[in-house]
């Protein structure tokens, strides 16, 4: 009997050992499986990081390429600016020479003056002064273009150095408006008479607001791009001219419809025109004032009535149904006659 008890005890121990061995085998298999899963996850993580780094490297290359393009454009504009300044100095010398010729009475004393000669001299003076005015206008435009390009260059440098890069999205190009980096729009164009290719870039910043870089010759004002056409137009002609100006840089152009009046008034104060008034994009239709863009719907009426109108404005007479802004002194809004010919403030989107 004692031997039977020993046999049963040994049998139980063997059974227990076998069960323990099976449990350890299952545990080892589970550990191995867990280790395999962890390695796969780590490998996936590494792959994702490598892909992200490759995308960031591609974006850095793109930004550096764009930076070099802008620097080259800036160099060309500086050369054009220097050439125009030389032309200005030459024109000034010509004007002074002609004026001295006319203003020397001793040269004409005792001589019979030929009226045709006097007329020719006057025409020469007018022609020289007109040429000087045109060259000064070109010089001013080139200066503004260079200023805008310098701002664009600074923004691109900041993007290259500090801005966190984002994953790119491939979006089909439509009608010349290309989409590359998320939230970025590139509008190609060319500055008339200069031959410099320009690019308007709208980049989404980290907080979701748009950082606008305006195409030449437009100026960035708040979140919008404005440009003053110095030539005089009727209101309808001005809308057409602004539309053509916007199309020339690959965007949609129209008369300005400012939403931030504070920055807009500061911009107007800095403009140099020979007219005390400028056309903007407001009109009265069926007795109601509205912006031409219609971008704010029913809010247009409230926005226009809340404008800083000048004293006694708007007149609301039948022939004064288009919006203009007083461009000097106290910047105020008026309703001007539709037949008036004024410079225009254009906007591109």
UniProtKB/TrEMBL annotation:
Which domain of life, per UniProt?
Eukaryota
Its taxonomic placement starts with: Eukaryota, Metazoa, Ecdysozoa, Arthropoda, Crustacea
This chain's source organism reads Chionoecetes opilio
Pfam families, A to Z: Lectin_C (PF00059)
Write down what this protein is called.
C-type lectin galactose-binding isoform
Gene of this entry: LECG
Which SMART domains does this chain map to?
CLECT
Q: Where is the C-type lectin domain?
A: 221-347
Which InterPro entries does the protein's record reference? C-type_lectin-like, C-type_lectin-like/link_sf, C-type_lectin/snaclec_domain, CTDL_fold
